[in-house]
Each structure stands twice: as C-alpha cells, then as structure tokens.
C-alpha cells in the first residue's frame, strides 16, 4: 500500500484532536500539516490547544511542535504539501462549502467531517460498509469542479451511524416505516462536562438541525449513483427525535421498524452477526472485524460498556423484540467521535485510497 501525506484542517477542535490521535501511528497516513483559524497561525499545535485539549489521551508528542497554518489563507501551501486533507472546521456552512471547494480546486481531495456538503448531489456521503459504491460519483463531481484529482467526500451525521447500519443489513426485507429516538452524548456538541456544566444530571430534548439530518441523510446513504448525482432512496419513511443526554461519548438509538416482508427475529440477528462490507473485504486498517455485534443480554448495549467496541468502530445492537405498533423494535449504539466522526472519516479515506481515488 502507498503512503500518503495528509493535513488536518480544523485541528484544534474536538474532532480535529481526535484525528490527531487516530493518525499518530497510522500505517498509511502521515500528518504533514495542521491548520485552524487565523488566530492560531504560527503557533505550535501545543500552544494552539493550550487549555482546550478535550481528549482523555494526551496530545501526541510528534505533533506538539508542529507549526499551525491558517486553514483559509494558507490553503495553497497546505495543498502543495499533502495528498489530501481531513476537514473538521467550525465555520458557517457557506464558508465551509467555499473552503472545501477551494481545496478541491487546488487538486487536493477533501475528506470532510462537516455537514455543509452532505446534501450536495454529486458529493458522496460514505459509510464504507454500506455504500462504498457511491465513490463512483467522484468523476462526475470532478467534471463539475473542473478538476483532475480534487474532489470532496463526506461522512454522514454521527447520529445516524447508531441505527442506519443495523437497518442496512435488513434492506432486502424492505423496511417501510422507521421511528427512531436518539440519545446523543455531549461530545457530539464538541463539549465536555467541564465546559458544559448545565448538562450534568440533565437531558435536553433539542439538538438544532439534528432531526432533519436523521431523517434525510439515510436516504442518500441508501440511494444510488444516477449519472451526475446520487438519487436518494424513496423508502423507508423515517421520523426522528434527538435528545442530548448526560454521557461523555456514545450515541444510542431506540428504533422501531415496519417491513413489507417481515423477517423472523432469528433471521435479523443472523444478518447482523454476519454483516460484512467493502471495508472488511479490503481489510482496511481502521475497519472493525465485526461491524455489527448483537447482544443477547436484556441490558446491553450500554454506553459505558460498549461504545469502545472494535476500537470504537463497531456498532452494537440489542433488545430486539416484536412491537405492538411496528413489526420490531431494538436499540443500537455507536461511538460518536470514532465511528461517527473522525474514525469514520479515516475509514472513508482508507477506502478511497484503496480504490485509487487518491492516486496522483
């Protein structure tokens, strides 16, 4: 496998910090540039994150003395130094769209953790075990952008990674209606209990924009490449509620599903336990050996016990049972800053490298 030089744009935020930990000893990727807002330009990474380091693991020594770039003003210099970037900036959506297209047009591919381009019709939103084939839209996007190598690919919202994987293993039973309630950790807002004291012993029944994402993004993930765009799936219909809960990491979902062809409970569990995707076929470095794990115990999965399953890249499922209104209900759990954010973006980048989209 080739080795790639990469940049982390938005390196000082919570997701950017998680990228630094995941890439510290990555077998394929070497971090060659760290960038954030202009106020950090010229500082070392250690100086830029002073008093703001939110990870439980310490900052990697190898990055402490790296000098920060301005993500916007130094884009040309960064693009010249790296093979592609990971983007996790905290900016307005129109500014993010412009910034990511700027890098793409500099012939620097973008693996984005941001939501700004998720619904752009020719930008693939990839969960490697589910819709790796959506990378085939990249040539159409390059044609629109006028690039030979540059493009943008995004990972999905962290909340849908708790229940969409479980449903994806069951799509040939034709789910028609899904109701889901997600219970989302505070790190999804870039917060810790130290910085967000009002979340201690609390639940907030509102996360701005999250319910719309939870209802619409799965349809794009389950869609198909159609010429110059990705055509979203038309079913199932999804309704969602999203709550912020007093957990540091881990998004849990309570899902209810109705099928056109109702499977047996044993069939569903067998599908989950046997599910493999392109990430496993290619044996990508960050791919979990078991993408989906089903627990028989009545009180599993639990956030504290199970969010780190498969190094935080596995999805755990439990409490499958028949329902009085729908066919079945179950709960599922994913680690929101690993599978749901930085880890999912790293896995997506590994897929795009393995499939040749990052070649110079």
Q: Would you kindly provide a written description of the structure presented here, covering whatever features stand out?
A:
- With 360 residues, the protein is an alpha/beta fold.
- The chain has 2 domains: 4-157 and 342-354, Rossmann fold (3-Layer(aba) Sandwich); 160-335, 2-Layer Sandwich (Dihydrodipicolinate Reductase, domain 2), CATH 3.30.360.10.
- Helix content is 29%, strand content 22%.
- The protein has 13 helices and 15 strands.
- It has helices at residues 14-23, 45-48, 61-64, 75-81, 93-105, 128-131, 138-145, 160-168, 210-221, 265-274, 278-281, 303-306, 338-354, and strands at residues 4-9, 29-36, 69-70, 84-87, 110-112, 152-154, 175-184, 203-204, 224-226, 229-231, 237-245, 251-259, 292-294, 315-322, 328-334.
- Strand 1, helix 1 and strand 2 form a beta-alpha-beta unit.
- Helix 1 packs across helix 13.
- The longest helix has 17 residues, at 338-354.
- GO terms for molecular function: aspartate-semialdehyde dehydrogenase activity; NAD binding; NADP binding; protein dimerization activity.
- Pfam families: Semialdhyde_dh (PF01118), Semialdhyde_dhC (PF02774).
- Keywords: NADP, Oxidoreductase.
